[in-house]
Write a structure and sequence with these properties.
The complex is a heterodimer of chains A (453) and B (216). Chain A is of the alpha/beta class and 453 residues long. Helices cover 28% and strands 27% of the residues of chain A. With 216 residues, chain B is mostly helical. Classes of the chains: A alpha/beta (453), B mainly alpha (216).
Chain lengths: 453, 216
């Protein structure tokens, strides 16, 4: 069996700080490899090295080489917004298939088959900006199916997918696996497709080693226990609220309150969870009224409103205002509203999120998981009354997830009983006994559910 | 008409009227452009926008030439006033009847401009609405962290520039992931036609404009 060979490779973004040291590895072709390991260990970077995006777009190979790389490769990125060049899926298809130098009959055939297989016909002519994260991921898979690459790299492709969408895409992956394609996927939560995995690579401490599934602790059952608060106080109230986009109704008219304590918000991909968050941050128009402590939020000045409502954005880059980690934290401290963190030093803050040696790093170059931790800490410094968290666990390993939850409990929820947070997540590890309520957005309705998941 | 030819025609006419002040020609060109636009279902809203958008600038030019220039030349002032409108109406003839995607594909296929240039421009255009939303989001994100960035704050635009730079790199990587290679040949799945009719229309309009511009 032939394989992709990595010979004594050393690679880093700064000369003194190598990400991989003397890495030697052989990845069998026409097989399915899982790449896993702690956040920030270099999984995304390794995939981009295989795609030869690095060192072209950053970093430097100090020594060594990668041999036997298939030239026909494709990649699905962690952030689906980085995937597309054109305005609509149909245009993206044409662009991609023209790149492969296909004539119009071949292209049409491939496109039809891929669209049918992934069931995205209704999305083809919609603008990408109107698609949800999960829908974009589906389109990304459809394009891969039409491309038929020899090497397929996937960087946590299911992070923004609900269980049904994830199951659907895993089925597509299984079909691809049969087609003599080398598939390498980086992920933290692989319990759903263990049966597809041929070999596992463990990435940590500047190197990557062959490992096996039994050596890895698989995430446990994801049933959650919710602990209802004895005296919940409403913070936000929705009155005769409904939410429509140009194409569809996302939420039908209803009344609802959001309470103090921790609320988990779940719902299928595209049901409108992120849109609902945009409504609460005044970035999307809606019908009806939203009251914050009984005052219409449209009558509260933005400056005052956003002091009370904070958000940890799905795209971490939206959160940052400065250049380096230390600058962000210094800025956060100078505007700090949190009594527990007010007197902390930058170094103490760095320790809280395990970023001690990263103070001078540009925030945009942190790994996905590291960004998430920094984002949450920055919002804890600002200390709003009500915090919205959109997929805060994406890109984080088990330990990182646990760390975030501890931070949220210690420095936010336990500060006073009038605080509230609402969190969107598709992964529930470590979340047992953290939440007080479970809100589900389904069939155009927001509804609290009482029973255990 | 073929988007590339339309663009070239508009550029030539615009260049000509910049060198040859002719009030009648300006008025006829505005009329012609208006008829063309109405033919392509110009809405009232678009019409009013075209009318009001350049008004301030046009009035400034007019008053400078009529009230403040030593010779108070009324005809010349009107000529430059209408010239601005010719530019805007001709521009509208392109932007309101052709999508950016079509124009980009036409530039690539008919004029053989490098694909990197056309798709780069197109991707940048697709980013514009995203950029607008981004500036608002940066604004709100700053307020959530206890600071207010005014719309003239350098930090706001520094951050917006950083975001744009990051996007540019992402677009590049995204294009590569979807099989784009800078110097490789690409097929054409959706051809943009360049027909005899296009050429005839192009030459016809160009020839017709010359006597209007130079004799009238």
């Amino acid at each position: 069996m032939s394989s992709i060979k990595i010979n004594h490779l050393s690679f880093g973004f700064t000369p003194n700080n190598l990400l991989f040291k003397d890495l030697s590895l052989s990845i069998p072709t026409s097989s399915f490899s899982l790449l896993t390991g702690p956040s920030g260990s270099g999984k995304s970077t390794f995939l981009k090295l295989l795609a030869q995006l690095y060192p072209t777009y950053g970093g430097k190979i100090d020594q060594g080489s990668i041999q036997n790389l298939p030239t026909k490769w494709s990649m699905i990125f962690q952030n689906p917004d980085e995937q597309f060049t054109m305005a609509t899926p149909a245009q993206e298809f044409i662009f991609t298939l023209e790149n492969l130098n296909l004539n119009s009959q071949q292209a049409e055939k491939r496109m039809l088959a891929a669209v049918q297989q992934t069931n995205i016909k209704q999305l083809l002519h919609r603008n990408f900006s109107t698609l949800s994260g999960g829908e974009k991921q589906r389109v990304a898979f459809a394009i891969i199916l039409a491309m038929r690459p020899k090497l397929l790299l996937l960087d946590e492709p299911f992070a923004s997918c609900d269980p049904s969408n994830r199951a659907f895409l895993i089925k597509q992956l299984a079909l691809l696996k049969q087609k003599d394609i080398t598939i390498i996927i980086s992920d933290h939560d692989f319990s759903y497709y263990q049966h597809l995995i041929d070999q596992v690579f463990w990435c940590s401490n500047h190197t990557i080693k062959l490992s096996s599934l039994n050596q890895l602790s698989t995430p446990k059952d994801t049933r959650l226990n919710f602990i209802p608060l004895p005296h919940p106080t409403p913070i936000l109230k929705l009155e005769n609220f409904s939410l429509h986009t140009q194409e569809q109704t996302l939420i039908q008219e209803q009344n609802l309150s959001l309470f103090t304590g921790a609320t988990l918000l779940t719902g299928p991909n595209g049901s409108g969870k992120s849109s609902f968050f945009r409504v609460l941050t005044k970035m999307q128009p809606y019908n009806g009224q939203i009251l914050l402590h009984n005052k219409n939020i449209q009558k509260i000045k933005n400056k005052k409103y956003f002091k009370q409502i904070g958000q940890v954005f799905q795209d971490p880059n939206n959160q940052f205002l400065m250049v380096t980690v230390a600058e962000e934290l210094k800025f956060g401290l100078s505007h700090c509203n949190n009594p527990l963190l007010k007197k902390a030093t930058v170094n103490e803050l760095l320790t809280l999120i395990n970023l001690n040696h990263h103070q001078d790093q540009v925030v945009y170059s942190l790994s996905g998981g590291q960004k998430k931790k920094l984002q949450v800490l920055l919002m804890l410094l600002a200390n709003p009354t009500f915090l919205l968290l959109d997929e805060p666990f994406a890109g984080l390993d088990q330990h990182g997830q646990q760390q975030l939850i501890t931070l949220l409990q210690k420095y936010f929820l336990k500060l006073d009983s009038q605080k509230g947070l609402i969190l969107i997540s598709h992964q529930f590890n470590n979340l047992d006994n953290f939440f007080n309520y479970h809100l589900v957005l389904q069939d155009k309705e927001l509804q609290y559910v009482k029973e255990k998941r | 008409m073929n988007p590339s030819l339309k663009l070239i025609l508009i550029l030539i006419i615009s260049l000509e009227i910049s060198f040859k002040p002719n009030l009648w020609a300006n008025l006829i060109l505005i009329g012609g452009a208006l008829i063309y636009l109405i033919f392509h279902h110009l809405s009232w809203r678009e019409f009013l926008l075209i009318l009001f958008f350049p008004l301030l600038g046009a009035i400034a030019i007019f008053s400078a030439l009529y009230f403040f220039a030593p010779d108070h030349n009324l005809i010349y002032a009107w000529t430059l006033f209408t010239r601005l409108y010719v530019f805007v109406f001709l521009g509208a003839c392109l932007t309101l009847t052709t999508t950016a995607g079509k124009l980009a594909r036409s530039l690539e296929q008919n004029l053989h401009l490098p694909s990197k240039f056309t798709y780069g421009c197109l991707a940048a255009l697709n980013l514009l609405p995203k950029m607008k939303a981004e500036v608002i989001r940066i604004h709100y994100a700053a307020q959530m962290r206890g600071t207010s960035l005014s719309f003239w704050s350098p930090r706001l635009y520094f951050k917006a520039t950083l975001v744009a730079l990051a996007w540019a790199e992402n677009i590049n990587q995204g294009m590569l992931a979807h099989g784009y290679r800078e110097n490789a040949s690409r097929s054409i799945i959706k051809p943009i036609l360049l027909t005899k009719k296009d050429w005839l229309l192009f030459l016809g309009v160009l020839i017709l404009v010359q006597p209007i511009l130079f004799i009238l």
